[in-house]
Structures are given as structure tokens and as C-alpha cells.
Amino acid sequence: LDEFGAEHVDAFDLDPEMVELARRRLASVATRTRLWTGDVTRIEAEDQTYDAVFDFGIVHHVPVWRSALIEVHRVLKPGGRFFSEEVLKDFILNPIVRRVLDHPLEDRFTHEEFLQGLVDVGFRVVGQRRIGRTIGWYVADKNERSTVSG
Fold first, then answer.
1. Backbone dihedral angles phi then psi of residue 38, each to the nearest 5 degrees
2. Strands, DSSP E only, in 8-146?
3. CA dihedral 24, 27, 16, 136 (to 10 degrees)
4. For 44, which DSSP code?
5. What's the confidence (pLDDT) of residue 70?
6. pLDDT value, residue 97
7. Phi-psi region of 127 (alpha: psi -120 to 50; beta: other; left: phi over 0)
8. What is the pTM of this model?
9. What is the pLDDT at residue 149?
10. Four-point Cα dihedral 89, 20, 6, 10, nearest 10
């Protein structure tokens, strides 16, 4: 938390075991965290709540992935920043990966499609990097005058 200068952090995951693991890892800062089992397409927060949202490989698990971007945009304050690290289509569709990992296969995204998805919901991309054809890193800001997308 201190590394990012955060006074408070909310975090969630679909998997209760991951939430419990986070709870144990963050026990020393428990008064500054709120953890829950939740869905990125229905974030338990009011509109324009957060200064920053971090996505560590979540959006590619969502069958209708654009709905996750819309929801992140909704909960970010104007001027807020979205940091995303995502697995791209070529990785997910690789036959070897498909044998060991369970990911939705329909409507997966390339690096360029994810960038366009960010723009389509109202973000301004301020940084991006593709690692081969498998991983994308993205930094996008919500416009200062943005209203809630949806």
C-alpha cells in the first residue's frame, strides 16, 4: 500500500480462496483494506469512487470483457487511472494453454482490440506495451469531464 501512497485499498476476486490468501498477506494493514468476493462486472462501489484501479489478469476471464471496462470506468473518479496487465488472444487460444487453463474462448482480444476497447468506453490511453503476442500492459486515464459509461 505504501509503495503506491494508498491510504486505503479495496480488493476483490471471484475466488474466495484468493480473497482469503490476500487477507492473510495483508493482515498487517487490515485496517486500511477491504476485501471481498466479487465480480469485476458488478463492482461493489459507488460511481466515481476510486483514484486508481489495478487489473492483474482479470478482464480476459470475463465472457463479455467490454462490460468489465465499462464497470472500471464507472467506479473511477474523473482523472482516475486504470492500470491493466492482460493475457492476449494468442496465448488463450494456444492449444497447450487450453489444456491446462480454463478461459473463455469466444470474443477474446488482441493488444489492439483491448486498446480500442479502452478508448470506446471513454479512457485515454497514456501508456501501453505488448510483450510478444501474449501479454499487454496498459495505463489509461478517465477524462476529467467523463461521465459514467454504460
1. -160, 175
2. 9-13, 33-37, 50-56, 76-87, 123-131, 135-142
3. -90
4. S
5. 98
6. 66
7. beta
8. 0.88
9. 47
10. 70
Higher pLDDT, 144 or 43: 43
- Amino acid identity for residue 95 in this structure: P
Give the whole-angstrom CA distance, residue 23 versus residue 4: 19
List the 50-56 sheet strands across, edge first. Answer: 50-56, 76-87, 135-142, 123-131
Q: How far is CA 37 from CA 15, 18, 32, 40, 57, in A?
A: 7, 9, 17, 10, 16
pLDDT at 105: 67
Q: In a 3-state reduction of DSSP, which class is residue 56? A: strand
The angle formed by the CA atoms of residues 134, 25 and 62, to the nearest 5 degrees, is 35
Domains, in order of start, for the chain:
1-38 (no CATH), 45-150 (3.40.50.150)
pLDDT of residue 107: 74
